[in-house]
Amino acid sequence: MITSVPEKINFTEVMTEWTNLFMRRSMGDFHNFMRNWGLSMPQVSTLFRLHYRGGCGVSDIAQQLYVSNAAASQMVDRLEQQGLVERVHHPADRRVRMVQLTEQGHSLVKKGLEVRIGWISDLTHMLSPDQQETIVVAFAALTEAARQMETDTHGREE
Question: What residues are paired with 97 via a beta bridge?
Answer without folding.
Answer: 89
